[in-house]
Amino acid sequence: MPRLAVSSSCEEWANKGKELFERKRYFQAKHCYERASMPRETAIANAYYLRGEARKIPKGNSRHLKEQLHRGFVTAAEAFLDCAQGASKNRAVYIRCAAECLELAPEDLRAAEKYLEAQEYNAAARLFRKLGHFDEAVDIVKNHKKDMQTDIVQNIEEVARLYYFREENFEKARELFSTDEEELEYLEDLDLGHVRAQVLVSLSRSVEAAAVYLAEGRIQEAIPLFLQNGQDMYSMHQACSCILQGFWNNVSYGIVPEKSQILQLIDWSNRLNLDLIDSKSLSEVSMFKAIVAHDKVNLAKLARVFLGTNNKPAATLCLYHCFRIFPQITALNSEELAEILHLFLDYIRLLYELTAQLYQARAEVLSGRILSLFGIHHVASDNFSISPGTFLDHTRGQEVPPEGLPIFGQDLSRILSQALRDEIRTLISQQIDKCKHAAQFFPCLNFNAFGYCNRISCPQEHILSTYVSKKWYNMRVRLNLQQVLILNTFYSLGVNPAEEMNKMNKKKRICLSQLYESFNPTFFYLGTQTMLDPAEIPEFKKGIQVVKEWLREVAYSLDVYPEVHFLTNMFRISNLALTFDPRDALRYLHSSPYLLPVFAIPPYIRAPNACMLGELLASIDGSKESSICAGFLSLCHIIDRGLPMNVDDICTLIEHLCTACVISSTKYRKGSLHGTTLPRSWLLHYLNRQGPQVKPRPPFSYLMPRIATLLETIYSGTGAEYLLFGSSNIAAIRSSGTRGVFITRICRAICLLGYNIPGPGYSLRLNIHRAVTSIYRRDRTFIQLYRQYVFARGWTDLVRALRNMPQGSLVDELIQLHDLGREAGPARPVHGVRIIPFRADDDLFQLLGASPPSLLETVSADSDIQQQQQKACNDGQAEDLTEHSVNVVEPDELDGMRDPDEAAELGDNFGDEPSSPAIIAADLPQAQPPSDEEKHAALTILNLYRRSRLQRGRGTKVRRIPSITKMISACWGVSHKMSWDNNRRYRFIFLWPLPHLLVCLDVALSTTSSQKKHLKKRLLEDHYENLDGLTNRMNEQVKLTKSLTRLQKTLEPASDLHRRYDIAELRRTVRETVQVLKALPFPAPDELQRNLGIAVKGILTPRQPLKSLPKPDLVWEDDIETVS
Fold it and tell me: DSSP readout, 924-940?
């Protein structure tokens, strides 16, 4: 030891240690305190030294560094805590330092506890909030709020409130509010509706809670709360509304629900107080129960109810489940099938109307129940969402995510429209397949006429003639008209060109042919057209309108060659057209391409420059002088050349010609129909189409051999391949009964011809007798239906056979007309003939018990009135017979009573002429080329169509914001109800700049709603550490939404603001709107900025006066002289 070295005292070491401690030289200070024998100060210096050493440890993500850092700070903290033990001074300081070390360790929970022990309330509360120990943090705030920083207190209270509400700890959350109303207002500001509802439930305010749940769309929670008030009308109404909404959400179009999925809803619906629920809602509840129970009968009844109340979505849903699987129709009668098809027509009509509205992009379609019907949710503005498992999900071919597929309105309209079009096509195709061979459309002729059918498993309907009624006849017509309407809906959706168009025309021809057969049955045992009563056919008016359109199209598309069914189609289409479209029929029938000379192919050329097609059409028309001769000659040509034609139509043509010949002859000779004896249906058919009163010159001698040939061909089947029937021909039909029906019709027709026109020397009757009996052979058998005709030995036997046809109210009975103004008949009646006395031809419709022809084109008179008229007719007939002593006149007696002049006029012109008479060519219809006006009209239509297709092809894609067109349409729709007499400037603003501003508000609301939804999700799902500031942001979004909604309602087209026409007030509101839109907390889309600029320029920017053009310089005379 050096001589000068002296040992320091403890006091010196203590002072030196204090100096070093103050200089933060803690390690040296610790050494000094140890030499000074001061253990407490040594421990304190050591604690500070350890803290300093811990701070020197580098921070990193490695496990070694983290453990080293943790160990260093924990050691320092423990040292500080040791210093605090037994310390009477600075104890809180040491504990605070320990807490700081523990926080850096990090051991936040111990640090928070030590902060609290050191009375560092801000730090303690902060750490407890960080750790999610909100109970401790809130307790600190409650007990030491005055000693804490305001911002920390507010933060903890805000976050704690939200945390307690998230954890549904409402009691603790309520402690952070001074009143219940403050608590509810807080939740409303944060848009936490479901939490607010739970708070209301805890406060026993169930109705308010249910209303909040309902506003949030949480109907499952709202329904039980509403049902708690079973005697309150409002609660029951809301409960029923929520139950229905739940049903619609789970049972939309295209979904077949399981009972387990909606069992709870059914249970709730059973708890409704039915006395307080309206019938419309109850019907919808019953609908969903029927859907779950697969009760199609009840669904059909409910569909009719909904159609009657114009509840189209509910009716559509009912009918979807009725026809999801088309009903089995084999066991149904005609009336039941007609009711099913009537419902089916309503079903596809509803879908078609909706498709048309969607195609036109009508905004009101995508709203309300229509969205619920297809499981679509309206998100905001023009944004929608397709739910998974719904109709559109199944038809798109791509899986919809669980959260739904977002879609814009125009895209939705296009996709839904196309999906519904495909749905309609599928439904109609299924229906056509089901009804293609349905027995109700095809009665069995053999069974009807004879009471038996030899076919095994006959696919046709077996109905006896005794069961044929007026109702059955009209029901059959109704079925075919329904098929016309169904097929018309199918083709209204559009078809592809070329082969699809040909298929469409072919199907239309087949459908019209079946309709013709229902109007004009093959045999009068199946009814006649006189039974037609449009009042019994609800679809008659619409169906006939479609038939008129089809007839025009088919007439222009008939294929002359090599179509086997051409003559049949031509004959039937012409007959239908002249019956139901008499005003326009001749115009388009005469312009049909098959009458053009280029189509005059050899089979249809009867003689040089004479085509039988024009002659046949003229005979069907019957309005020309040569119509009768033309008809007989075309008939003979068909028989001679064996032109394919339905044998039913050949018989109809013969009946038509015989009727025309009889009536024309009678009216020509007598000036009236006195003495005419014909079946009732034939007379009415003539009255509907009255021909000219001219002297007929039919070629009877030319005709009768052909009739005999035709009868032989039908009976034997030899060479009968051209006589078509059904899907085959007479040659392939083995049933003698079916052939016998046509033989009977022909024999009856020509016998009636001779019955009314005996002629001198009875040459016509003799020819008729020869023709009828020409098929007689000893080795042949003949059925009872026409046996009397074939076995007739003379004319008297033919008359007896004619009168012995079955009688009855529904049979086509023989009628003899007696003109009371001409003469009274003899007293002796004749069996099988009924007299109809009349004074004028106009009375015959009523006397014959039929409606005037004009009613057939629209709707007939009421059936009850017809029955009364028929009864009055029968009663009046008896009175007239007694009063005027009118009885049936024997034909032979009429011959004796005939005036000599009349007999002389008949001469030999009634059948003795060996050659066919000439026909005036001008009387025959000829196809006319289109006029210049028609060509111009066709060219205009074609140009418009091409322009429309071109614009549709160049159409822009769906816009990503609400369309300005939608807003302009809304303003224009309201403007028609407003007065603009002295408000032209306001009108300009209302119709042009204002819609642009409404678009801006719509976009801003949509974006704000999206952001608010995102923030709400974070408030409810984010970790508690990330909740800082979210409440403030959420409050800002809620306030912004309220402000935008208020401005939107103020500026919407129907608001009261526009009724005052105050431009200054409007501009103040617009300025406020512009300020809000410019202060949006998100980047404004380009489209919003553009529309906002247009609105500001049109509404707020003052109009600049027009700049006057500069005046030209004054030209002086000196200048003029200089120029010259």
Answer: S----PPPHHHHHHHHH
pLDDT exceeds cutoff 50 at 864 = no
Residue 997 in 3-state DSSP? helix
Phi-psi region of 571 (alpha: psi -120 to 50; beta: other; left: phi over 0): alpha
Cβ partners under 8 Å of residue 910, min gap 6:
698, 700, 757, 759, 763, 764
The dihedrals phi and psi of 459, each to the nearest 5 degrees, come to -80, 0
**For the range 865-869, what are the long-range contacts, defined as Cβ-Cβ under 8 Å and sequence gap of 24 or more?**
866/533
In 340-498 the beta strands, taken as DSSP E runs, fall at 376-380, 383-386, 405-408
Could you give the CA distance from residue 117 to residue 83 in angstroms, rounded to a whole number?
15
Question: At CA 960, angle to CA 1006 and CA 970, rounded to 5?
Answer: 70
- Copy the structure tokens of residue 150: 């305001």
If DSSP codes are grouped into helix, strand and coil, which group holds residue 102?
helix
Residue with tokens 């503005």: 381
Q: What gap in Å lies between CA 791 and CA 1023, rounded to an integer?
A: 108
CB 550 within 8 A of CB 512: yes
C-beta neighbour count of 590 within 10 angstroms = 18
CA distance 110 to 1034: 34
Could you give the angle at the alpha carbon of 579 between the alpha carbons of 466 and 679, nearest 5°? 40
Kindly report, residue by residue over 617-652, the tens digit of the pLDDT: 888 888 777 888 888 889 999 999 999 999 999 999
Following CA atoms 216, 219, 220, 222 in sequence, which dihedral angle do they give, to the nearest 10 degrees?
A: 90
The answer to whether residues 888 and 825 touch, using CB atoms and an 8 Å cutoff, is yes
Report residue 723: phi and psi, to 5°: -90, 95
Write the pLDDT tens digit of every residue in 480-537. 999 999 999 998 887 665 557 778 888 899 999 999 999 999 988 888 888 888 999 9
| Residues facing 605 on adjacent strands | 611
Find residue 837's DSSP bridge partners.
818
Cα atoms in the Cβ-side hemisphere of radius 13 Å centred on 499: 0
**What is the percentage of the chain residues whose pLDDT exceeds 70?**
85
pLDDT level of residue 959 (50, 70, 90 thresholds): very low
- Report pLDDT digits (tens) over 769-815: 999 999 999 989 999 889 999 999 999 999 999 888 765 445 678 88
* Nearest CA-CA partner of 373 in 307, 312, 453: 312
> Where do the DSSP E strands lie in 903-1032?
none
SS3 1087: helix
Residue 925 and residue 614: Cα distance in Å, rounded? Answer: 6
Q: Is 885 helix (H, G, I), strand (E, B) or coil?
A: coil
Mean pLDDT of 166-170: 84
Distance CA 975, CA 991 (A): 8
Cis amide prior to 696 (ω within 30 degrees): no
Residue 576: C-alpha distances to residues 481, 546, 559, 780, 1081 (Å): 13, 12, 18, 39, 72
User: What pTM did the predictor assign?
Assistant: 0.77
- Taking CA atoms, 758 is separated from 126, 1001, 1009, in Å, by 125, 92, 94
**Three-state DSSP state, 890:** coil
Residue in the structure block whose two tokens are 């700081």: 100
How confident is residue 943, by pLDDT bands cut at 50, 70 and 90?
confident
For residues 541 and 535, what is the distance between their CA atoms, to the nearest angstrom? 10
What's the alpha-carbon Rg for the chain, to the nearest Å?
49
pLDDT, tens only, 878-908: 333 333 333 333 444 334 334 434 433 443 3
Q: How far apart are the C-alpha atoms of 1042 and 74, rounded to whole Å? A: 53
Please state, in angstroms and rounded to a whole number, the distance separating the CA atoms of residues 28 and 198.
Answer: 65
3-state DSSP assignment of residue 623: coil
Amino acid found at 845: F
Helix axes 263-270, 233-250, angle to 10 degrees: 160
Query: pLDDT digit string (tens) for 228-254?
Result: 988 889 999 999 999 999 999 889 998
- The secondary structure element, H or E, covering residue 1036 is helix 1030-1051
